[in-house]
Specification:
The chain is mainly beta. It has four helices and 67 strands. A hairpin with a 4-residue loop joins β47 and β48. It holds the Pfam family Por_Secre_tail.
Length: 912
């Protein structure tokens, strides 16, 4: 669950990955050969060295980089991503379509009670109850609460992914807020110009309700080429109202008209973390990370923040000085703002196999005496040793924060992998653990808290209240002084988690869902799983969750969950590690985001991707690590260097004569294996790759969707920019299928997932992209339309799981959680007695009541029935007014049926 300080720039990765460069003789385009890099750091929470932690983060980043880079040029093309955004914003919306089209309604599936990576929290100074808070999820957006975190509302636009890193309130006008974008440390999707470089700085003038971009900070969000692509911290001057931005290698000041660079540390190094804080009197302090430039690293100050800067950590006068080896973060003591605490990476490693050492130092500057005091000896080193946990670990500065209690200048809290407090830093003793991992002896989590601490924020109205922002969202303690600090989760509709893969229960009518998440393990949800509603989820796995599946092959309903680098578990009838072994005690190599596939209609069959090798079992409920069948490898069978990325099987009861398995690789190939449960090896597979697909690593096949009732229809998707990305065939069982390119208006999109649904003979095709979910009834003739703009928006749709028995589609996003759609029949326009399309409901979704606009031809005696998604009647009666009380219904989707005489109508609504 760890990251390391890793500013990932195109220049560095090109030197790392691209080893062969040549010219394509048919074009003027330079062709770059990208070599596949396999990284296998140690598993969840047990990383041993700084080098291994760096590898762990690099593996996560490479997973995303390989899905974006143009395989022929070696770069993620800025112009292509600009076109992608323009295509997304200009696409038609399904909700605006008219005529005879299938209906899709989307509901939230959470996790509403579990949060994702949070770097910034601010308590509104204009609300003296302390209940108004604005926070930022790194890939989830900006959220606001007015009830102390009992519920949150997303206030940043759904049509952007802002990658929020810092929020600041203007003390001269508390209605004015700013948030910054662009995470430079440890982002799971930050490699070489990914989606999560920034889009500059955004401003609100209405207390954080609505936001607009400051035009002068506009960023292309594609490649790192400007300071506003990565922003670490914002602060607003208390007298001038000037905005200060600690960007990549610079401290910049905005006077509401133009920007001035106050300190320029350069913007070309790979280690340019910055920070900025301002006293209530207007003195500004800035920090620059170490190891890149001896002339700039450390801490600087200016009396008013307009020129006049001097360095205070190594000023040549004070004999007590320090030189940081990495990131530096700052905190002022609110009750005595002459005191500035400085926590910084010192270059040590807490490797238990050698001589472990605390990874940071802590110093305090006193502006009244112009001296530093070294408090590094107070930092925690508990009994024993635990890699990445104890001694005090900060993962190269990925998680590093210091804060001071508002009413006590000596009460200090710090965060790294874990959080700690010391009530009197001038006294005896050291910091004690208050969050993160439960203890120094292992990797169980502290109760109601999460490792990887990014924000520690005291309430300005109650000095005992502290908020914690971590990789697990937001938590609150009401008494930081308690001997054992207790936390309460505030992840109530703070929906910010990042799914790699999602799975839906194959049983018709079941609402059980499962999903593997970046850095947050695997979650399970559903009222049939025992949850109180459809959005609450339970964590059932650790580490980086990956592929997941739900089986009905045994009465216990087995979950199959995976962890990074190949580990695979089955949780019942007995919990077992079933990771395939190549030889006793030696598992097969795997990609970082582990991939396997459970046949959704024949749950006995389980397929496992061991890089280029396919493993199979036809006894998934009982398979052990040593009882898998090795089906062979692509490099020896086909002389192709494809590592398997995605699988798909024909739907329905298994038939040796007609069933097949599709396998997609990372060098662009697609293979069809007939009768996969009985095939001796993949040697009998047929290469059915579209002729115009890019056959080059990395050309990632991300989606293979087989029509639920017609096995000849297949939708195939690729994710890389600069390549053809959506193909459709209607003769997939031929020896050499005919493929049609059906990108149409998504020609510049990175396509991440695919599904095909059929409702009453009507087919609808879905693709998940880097900019939302799209559908088309016939992409050979009709452009794709964007689905769910108000729920999914432009979130990266990483995974789709479809259940044809009742037309449920589960959608996993990387940053905005999970959603579900029920795809329903088109209206029968030939039935003159069905006037559903004349009825309207509002509000929808609703919490208390539904209002109906009903045609006069319905008359005055109208009977209604409310049914759930299974068609079961929940309540019925006669309308006395055009209102129905639905406050007692559980959260979910329902249908209202209206009847009077020979007229009828049906409408869907959501009880939220």
């Amino acid at each position: 669950m760890k990251k390391t300080l890793l500013f990932v720039l195109s220049l560095l990765l090109i030197s790392l990955l691209f080893v062969v460069t040549k010219k394509d003789p048919t074009t003027t385009q330079k062709v770059v050969k990208i070599e596949r890099k396999t990284i296998n750091p140690t598993h969840a929470g047990k990383k041993k060295t700084l080098e291994e932690r760096a590898l762990y983060n690099e593996a996560r980043n490479l997973h995303e980089f390989y899905r974006q880079v143009n395989p022929l040029t070696g770069v993620i093309p800025k112009e292509e991503k600009n076109r992608e955004f323009k295509q997304a914003t200009s696409s038609k919306l399904r909700k605006n379509l008219t005529g005879k089209v299938p209906q899709t309604t989307y509901i939230n599936r959470g996790a509403s009670n579990l949060g994702g990576r949070t770097r910034t929290i601010v308590i509104d100074k204009s609300d003296n109850t302390g209940n108004t808070i604005i926070a930022g999820g790194v890939s989830g957006g900006v959220f606001r609460t007015t009830n102390g975190g009992a519920s949150w509302t997303k206030v940043s636009a759904n049509d952007e992914i802002h990658n929020v890193t810092s929020i600041a309130q203007d003390p001269t006008n508390t209605n004015i807020w700013y948030y910054a974008t662009g995470e430079g440390l440890g982002n799971s999707a930050s490699l070489s110009g990914s989606f999560y470089f920034g889009q500059g700085i955004w401003q609100s003038i209405d207390g954080g309700l609505t936001w607009s971009q400051i035009a002068s900070t506009a960023s292309d969000q594609d490649v790192f080429n400007a300071p506003f692509d990565i922003i670490f911290k914002l602060a607003v001057h208390p007298t001038s109202g000037n905005l200060y931005a600690a960007t990549f290698g610079r401290i910049m000041r905005y006077n509401n008209r133009s920007w001035t660079t106050e300190i320029d540390g350069g913007a070309t190094s790979t280690n340019r973390a910055t920070d900025v804080v301002i006293t209530t009197g207007g003195r500004v302090y800035a920090a620059f990370s170490g190891t890149h430039d001896a002339a700039i690293e450390g801490v600087w100050t200016s009396a008013n923040g307009v020129g006049g800067w001097s360095r205070i950590n190594n000023n040549g006068i004070d004999p007590a000085y320090f030189t940081p080896a990495g990131r530096v973060v700052l905190a002022l003591a609110p009750s005595n703002q002459n005191k500035l605490y400085t926590l910084f990476v010192n270059g040590n490693g807490s490797d238990c196999s050698t001589t472990p050492a605390i990874e940071a130092d802590l110093w305090m500057w006193d502006q009244s005496t112009l001296t530093y005091t070294d408090y590094s000896s107070k930092l925690p080193d508990e009994t024993g040793c635990s890699n990445g946990n104890d001694p005090f670990a900060v993962q190269g500065g990925y998680d590093l924060v210091v804060s001071v209690k508002p009413d006590n200048e000596n009460f200090v809290v710090i965060g790294g992998t874990n959080s700690y407090k010391m009530s009197n830093i001038t006294g005896a003793g050291t910091f004690t653990r208050i969050g993160g991992y439960a203890s120094a002896s292992g990797y169980a989590q502290y109760a109601n808290n999460h490792p990887d601490i990014h924000a520690l924020v005291f309430s300005p109205f109650n000095s005992n209240v502290l908020l914690s922002g971590t990789d697990g969202g937001i938590h609150r303690t009401s008494n930081i002084t308690a001997p054992t600090v207790g936390w309460t989760s505030l992840n109530n509709n703070y929906q910010t988690q990042q799914y790699y893969h999602v799975a839906i229960d194959p049983a018709t009518g079941s609402d059980i869902v499962l999903g593997g998440l970046q850095d947050n393990g695997t979650n399970a949800g559903g009222m049939d799983y025992g949850q109180p509603d459809l959005t609450t989820q339970t964590n059932v796995g650790t580490g980086d969750g990956a592929a997941s599946a739900i089986s009905r092959d045994d009465a216990c309903i087995p979950f199959f969950i995976s962890v990074q680098n190949g580990t695979l578990y089955r949780d019942c009838p007995t919990f077992a590690n079933i990771t395939p072994e190549e030889s006793p005690g030696v598992t097969y190599e795997s990609q970082f985001v582990t991939y396997f596939y459970l046949d959704p209609d024949n749950n006995n069959a389980l397929y496992y991707a061991a890089e280029k090798t396919l493993l199979r079992t036809t006894d998934a409920t009982n398979v052990t690590a040593s009882t898998w069948t090795d089906m062979g490898a692509t490099n020896t069978t086909f002389s192709h260097l494809d590592s398997f990325q995605t699988f798909s099987t024909t739907r329905g009861t298994y038939n040796p004569a007609t069933s097949y398995l599709l396998m997609g690789g990372d060098a662009g190939h697609i293979y069809r294996l007939d009768d996969p449960q009985n095939a001796a090896s993949i040697a009998s597979a047929v290469d059915i790759t579209p002729p115009t697909a890019t056959i080059e690593f990395p050309s990632i096949v991300t989606g293979l969707a087989i029509h639920p009732t017609n096995r000849d229809i297949v939708l195939a998707t690729y994710s890389n920019y600069g390549t053809e990305s959506i193909f459709l065939t209607t003769n997939a069982t031929n020896a050499s299928p005919t493929w049609t390119l059906v990108e149409r208006n998504l020609s510049s999109h990175s396509i991440r997932s695919a599904a095909i649904a059929e409702v009453s003979g009507q087919t609808i095709y879905f693709v998940g992209t880097a900019r939302g979910l799209y559908s088309s009834q016939d992409p050979t003739t009709t452009d794709w339309v964007r689905e769910s703009p108000d729920e999914i928006g432009f979130a990266l749709v990483s995974s789709l799981a479809y259940r044809p028995s009742d037309n449920h589609l589960l959608i996993g996003t990387h940053g905005n959680g999970m959603y579900e759609s029920i795809i329903t029949d088109v209206l029968n326009t030939n039935d003159i007695n069905d006037i559903s399309h004349y009825i309207s409901l509002f509000p929808n979704p609703t919490t208390d009541e539904i209002n109906l606009n009903i045609p006069q031809e319905f008359g005055n005696s109208i009977k209604y029935s409310i049914k759930n998604m299974l068609g079961q009647s929940i309540t019925n009666g006669t309308l006395l007014s055009n209102k129905i009380d639905v406050s007692t219904l559980q959260t979910g989707m329902y249908f209202i049926e209206l009847n009077t005489g020979d007229k009828k109508g049906t409408k869907k609504f959501i009880r939220k």
